[in-house]
Design goal:
Layout (H helix, E strand, L loop, with lengths): L1 H11 L1 H11 L4 H17 L9 E4 L1 H11 L1 H21 L5 E10 L3 E3 L8 E3 L4 E14 L3 H67 L5 H36 L6 E4 L13 H5 L6 H22 L4 E12 L12 E11 L4 H70 L5 H35 L19 H13 L12
C-alpha cells in the first residue's frame, strides 16, 4: 500500500503533471507508445520500480545487422565458407612442384657368403658405417586434367558454401521477421485491448448512473463488469505473449534478454511497391535455390571430367640428386661415397583404369542427369511459389480494404447501439454484441496490416543482392521461394492469434 502511495505521489508533482498533460493529448498510436515509455522512465528515475529494463526501438534493418554479427548459426556457416576457400587454395597448391628429401645413417653388419647349396660358408667383411642422402623434385606437366578439375570442384564447393551461408541468413531472417512482426502485432493488440477496456469502464459508469436513475438493471452492470474482466484477461495474456516473443527476439540477435524491444512504428507507413507477377518471375533465376541447383549440375559435370582424367597418363619432369656410401653393389664392397644426379621425364599409366573407370563414368553420367532433373524441379517450384505468393499478396490487400471498412462500420454500429441503450431503446445484449464486433474488427484490421508487412518482408528477405533500391526497406527485390516460406505465408494468411504462429515464423 505504501508503495502505491509513493507511485501516486510522483504523478501529483507539478512537473510530472505537466509532462503527462502534454503526453495525454497525443492521440496517435505511436504517441501512446512513447507515452508509456516516458512514464516508465519517470518511475525508474524516481526509484519506484525495482528493475528498469533497457528499452530499445529496433528497426528491421538493425535487427538483421545484429543477427548477421551475433547469430551462431550464421557464424558457423561463415566458418564453412572460410573452410571452403582454404580448400580451394589447397587444390591450387597441387600445381606446384613436389620436393622430397631423404637422409639416413646406418650401421652395416658383416656379410656371410655360401655356395648355392648353402655349403662352404665364409665371412665377408663389410664397411660398417653407411649414409644416404637424396633430394628429388617432380613437376607435373600433364595429369589428364585432374588437377584443374580438382581446382574447379573446390571453387564450385566454395560457391556452394557462400550460397548456403546466404540461405542460412535468409532462414534466420525468416525467423526474426516472424518474431518482430508478431511482436508488433501484439503491441497493437495490447493497444486495442487498452482502448476497449477504457471504453468499457466509461460505459460501466454510464450504466451505473442509469441504474441510479432507474433506467437500467443491475444485471446490465454485472454483464459489463464480466465483459471488462474478459478484456483485462485478454490484455494480461497479450502482455505475457509479448514477454515471450521479446526474449526470443533478443536472444536470437545477441542482445541482453532483459532488453525491451519496441518495433519501429514507421514500417506501416512505408510505401510498398506492388510489382506485377511477370517482373517477379523474370528474377527467379537469381533465386539462391536455383543457383544451388545450377552449381549441383556443374559439380556433377566436373565429376565426370575427373573420372575421365583417371583414364589418361600422367607426365612429369623429374630432377634428383643422390649421395650414398658405401658402394655395396660391388664385391667386395667399396668403402667410399658415391654422388650422382639425373633429370628426366616420367610417364605413368594405369591400364586397369580402362575397365574400372567405365563403371565410374556411367555412375557420374546418371548423377548429372539427376542433378539436371532436380534443377528443373527447383525452377518449377520457385515459379509456383512466386505465383502463389503474388496471389496471396493481392488477396491480402483486398482483405485489408475489407477490414478497414469493417472497422468503420463497427464503430458506427457501436455508437448507434450505445445511444439506443442509454435511451432505453435496446438491450444490454445488443451492447455486448456491438462491443465484441468492434473489438474483433479492430484486431482483424491490425492483423491484416501485419499480414501484408509479413509477406512484403518475406519477399525482401528472399531477394538476391543484385542491386540496391532506396525505396525498399532492405534495398532489394526478389521472388519468394515457396518451399521455405509456405508455413509463413499460411501464418500471414490467417494472421489471427499470436498463439498460432507456426515453427520458423516466430
Amino acid at each position: 500500500m505504501f508503495q502505491i502511495k509513493q507511485i501516486l505521489s510522483v504523478f501529483e508533482h507539478p512537473i510530472v503533471e505537466a509532462f503527462l498533460g502534454i503526453l495525454w493529448r497525443l492521440k496517435e498510436r505511436k504517441s501512446r507508445m512513447n507515452r508509456k515509455k516516458f512514464v516508465t522512465g519517470l518511475l525508474c528515475m524516481a526509484g519506484l520500480l525495482p528493475v528498469c529494463a533497457q528499452q530499445r526501438v529496433l528497426s528491421v534493418e538493425e535487427m538483421f545487422r545484429l543477427a548477421d554479427t551475433n547469430s551462431r548459426s550464421i557464424r558457423s556457416h561463415g566458418l564453412a565458407v572460410d573452410e571452403a576457400r582454404q580448400g580451394t587454395k589447397t587444390a591450387k597448391s597441387d600445381k606446384l612442384p613436389s620436393i622430397e628429401a631423404n637422409l639416413s645413417f646406418s650401421y652395416i653388419g658383416n656379410g656371410w657368403m655360401t655356395d648355392r647349396d648353402f655349403s662352404d660358408g665364409q665371412k665377408a667383411s663389410m664397411p660398417h658405417y653407411g649414409n644416404s642422402f637424396a633430394i628429388k623434385a617432380t613437376q607435373v606437366v600433364y595429369a589428364g586434367g585432374a588437377i584443374n578439375r580438382g581446382v574447379r570442384l573446390s571453387e564450385l564447393r566454395e560457391q556452394v558454401a557462400e550460397l548456403e551461408l546466404q540461405d542460412k541468413r535468409q532462414e534466420v531472417r525468416f525467423l526474426l521477421v516472424g518474431y518482430y512482426l508478431g511482436l508488433y502485432q501484439l503491441y497493437n493488440r495490447q493497444e486495442v485491448y487498452e482502448k476497449n477496456i477504457e471504453q468499457t469502464r466509461m460505459l460501466v459508469k454510464e450504466i451505473q448512473a442509469a441504474f441510479q436513475q432507474g433506467t437500467a438493471l443491475k444485471s446490465d452492470i454485472t454483464r459489463y463488469e464480466l465483459q471488462l474482466q474478459s478484456l483485462e484477461l485478454g490484455l494480461t495474456s497479450t502482455r505475457n505473449r509479448i514477454k515471450v516473443l521479446n526474449r526470443q527476439l533478443t536472444t536470437t540477435i545477441g542482445l541482453d534478454p532483459e532488453t525491451v524491444i519496441f518495433p519501429d512504428t514507421t514500417v506501416l507507413t512505408r510505401e510498398m511497391e506492388r510489382r506485377d507477377e511477370l517482373a517477379w518471375q523474370g528474377m527467379k533465376d537469381e533465386s539462391p535455390r536455383l543457383k544451388l541447383a545450377d552449381l549441383g549440375v556443374e559439380i556433377s559435370k566436373q565429376q565426370q571430367d575427373l573420372v575421365r582424367a583417371g583414364r589418361r597418363p600422367n607426365i612429369g619432369l623429374v630432377a634428383a640428386n643422390h649421395f650414398d656410401g658405401p658402394i655395396l653393389i660391388e664385391v667386395p664392397p667399396i668403402d667410399k661415397n658415391f654422388n650422382y644426379w639425373y633429370v628426366g621425364i616420367g610417364v605413368s599409366y594405369k591400364f586397369d583404369a580402362l575397365f574400372k573407370n567405365n563403371k565410374k563414368l556411367k555412375q557420374a553420367r546418371i548423377a548429372t542427369r539427376k542433378a539436371e532433373e532436380e534443377r528443373l524441379l527447383a525452377e518449377e517450384q520457385v515459379a509456383n511459389g512466386i505465383h502463389a505468393a503474388w496471389v496471396e499478396l493481392d488477396e491480402a490487400y483486398s482483405r485489408l480494404r475489407t477490414r478497414e471498412k469493417s472497422v468503420q462500420l463497427a464503430h458506427e454500429n457501436y455508437d448507434v447501439v450505445r445511444y439506443r441503450y442509454l435511451n432505453g431503446l435496446s438491450l444490454v445484449t445488443d451492447m455486448l454484441d456491438a462491443s465484441n464486433i468492434q473489438l474483433s474488427s479492430e484486431l482483424e484490421l491490425t492483423n491484416a496490416r501485419i499480414g501484408i508487412l509479413y509477406q512484403y518482408y518475406l519477399r525482401a528477405i528472399s531477394a538476391p543482392c543484385k542491386g540496391k533500391n532506396p525505396a525498399h526497406p532492405l534495398g532489394r527485390y526478389c521472388p519468394l521461394d515457396g518451399k521455405k516460406a509456405a508455413p509463413c505465408l499460411e501464418f500471414a494468411e490467417r494472421c489471427g492469434s499470436p498463439d498460432s504462429i507456426p515453427d520458423g515464423c516466430g
